[in-house]
Amino acid sequence: MRKLSVSIEYFPLAAPFAISRGAKLEAAVVVAKISDEGVTGRGECVPYARYRESPASVIGAIEQVRPAIEQGANREQLQILTPAGAARNAMDCALWDFEAKRLGIRAYEIAGLHRLAPATTAFTISVNSPEIMAAAATAARDRPVLKIKLAGDGDEERLAAVREAAPHAELIVDANEGWREDQLETLLQACVKTGVVLIEQPLPAGRDAALADIRHPIPICADESVHDRTGLSALRDRYDAINIKLDKTGGLTEALALARAAQAEGFAIMIGSMVGSSLGAAPAMLLSPFAQWIDLDGPLWLKRDREPALRFDGSTIYPPEPGLWG
User: Fold this and answer.
1) Is 95 helix (H, G, I), strand (E, B) or coil?
2) Which residues are known to be catalytic?
3) Omega into 83 within 30° of 0, i.e. cis?
4) Helical axes 130-139 vs 155-165, angle rounded to 10°
5) Which of 118, 132, 172, 194 lies closest to 295 in space, CA to CA?
6) Using alpha carbons only, how large is the chain's radius of gyration in Å?
């Protein structure tokens, strides 16, 4: 008989991870395991307070659908049983892993992909003073892509400091909804001046209409403004790209559908994840064939990762081995 188990796990970070909304010193993740006849599939999610999620609320949401999961609900049925979010992500990815192991094939084959190749991930520079960010960028200057967390006031100085410290890196910036509308023109020009290639979620979700009325000298990417396919078309006049994260879409099933829909709508695609272990980042690798930018450096922030873990060679991330996921 199929069994579902769920647990909370904590991973200390090697350094504080700071964005415009605050900093964290550990990653709290929820892991779902689905087992039957000696086969176990695992999925990990990261509850996010920005979306009113906590480890306790995610476990509560999983418990609500436990009977259906244990009675054999599949991934398609799960999309109807519970809304997009971290709880569904853990269960959906566990079902992908379970199905791959039960069938004896790789998850990417189930997804209709021919193969997975290594990819280059961005490496994040947390928001801080220009001096501290410059020091972090100096330490990471050999990485080909840096993702710079910004916060609004003081961002011109932060950008200049990071660019000086890492003159050859491709720069992505992420304001995490931290800019004001009256800062847009100034900060856009600062990004142009420093050679930024992508700007992620400059304005708060729901208050981003001004993005439709300004020129985009650099592509602007929706993160908090997009979760799943619902409302995707409405973003077309505001954004040039979208960031797909499994914890927002509610798992790999919807994420793959969103990636294909976004391509059809003409959006460029970034693949992102929360700060969690390799188990959480591994399923997102199946989205890499769709993406222009990949941001899966979460495991690199941990003091310790799972065993086995994703393999990183500098900023090159390799597809997961079956012992980890899929």
Assistant:
1) helix
2) 149, 245
3) no
4) 30
5) 172
6) 19
Residue 238: Cβ within 10 Å count: 18
- 3-state SS, residue 179: coil
Domains detected in the chain: 3-107 (3.30.390.10), 119-317 (3.20.20.120)
Q: How far is CA 65 from CA 52, 54, 58, in A?
A: 19, 17, 11
What is the amino acid identity at position 245?
A: K
The model's pLDDT over 138-165, given as tens digits with 9 standing for 90+, comes to 999 999 999 999 999 999 999 999 999 9
pLDDT for 21? 76
Name the E strands within 20-75. Answer: 22-36, 39-45
Rounded average pLDDT per 10-residue block, the chain, 326 residues: 96 86 88 97 96 96 97 97 97 98 97 94 96 96 96 95 97 96 95 98 95 95 95 92 98 98 97 96 98 97 96 97 96
CA 86, distance to chain mean position in Å, is 12
Return the closest-CA partner of residue 96 out of 37, 32, 10.
32
Which strand (E) or helix (H) includes residue 63? Answer: helix 55-64
Over the stretch 219-235, which tens digit does the pLDDT of each residue have? 999 999 999 999 898 89
Please work out, in degrees rounded to the nearest 5, the angle formed at the alpha carbon of residue 211 by the alpha carbons of 210 and 214: 90
- All residues at 6 or more sequence positions from 52 whose CB lies less than 8 Å from its CB, including other chains: none
Are 228 and 250 in contact by the 8 Å Cβ rule? The answer is yes
Q: How far apart are CA 266 and CA 209, in angstroms?
A: 19
User: What is the pTM for the complete model shown?
Assistant: 0.95
Q: Are strands 268-272 and 241-245 parallel, antiparallel or unpaired?
A: parallel
Q: What is the pLDDT of residue 41?
A: 98
Q: How many other CB atoms are found less than 10 A from the CB of residue 192?
A: 11
